[in-house]
Amino acid sequence: MAVVAERRGAIVGFAHIHADPGPRAGRRAAPADIQFVVAPEVRGRGLGVLLAQECVWIAERLGLHEVQARVTSGQPAARAVFERVGFVPAAMLPNGARTARGRPRHILVMRRTAPSDIG
Q1: Lowest CB count within 10 Å: 50, 61, 92, 105, which one?
Q2: CB distance 19 to 62 below 8 Å
Q3: Cβ proximity of 107 and 92 under 8 Å
Q4: Domains along the chain with CATH numbers
């Protein structure tokens, strides 16, 4: 499922949520994954938070108990967005990604659990 942000006829951001179609063999569905992208000219205005919130809202309405996101060590703003909507660090994958110039980046896996699952 995707959410698109448009400004004056141009796409300035989008987010998507990818979910396992459902539990198999009696196990709970795998966590849904969300990602978002915001155009450079509109960054810092809250659009990333809005897109992430929409994905969380969709996940909750679909009954998905857990949502995860991955950010690299070079994306502190994206990490802050996910933390703002309730995600917490869950795992670190050292040198799990590389920049276009070949520099290593750590990948931080962040998770958010549905409020009914906490406690």
Answers
A1: 61
A2: yes
A3: yes
A4: 2-20+30-117 (3.40.630.30)
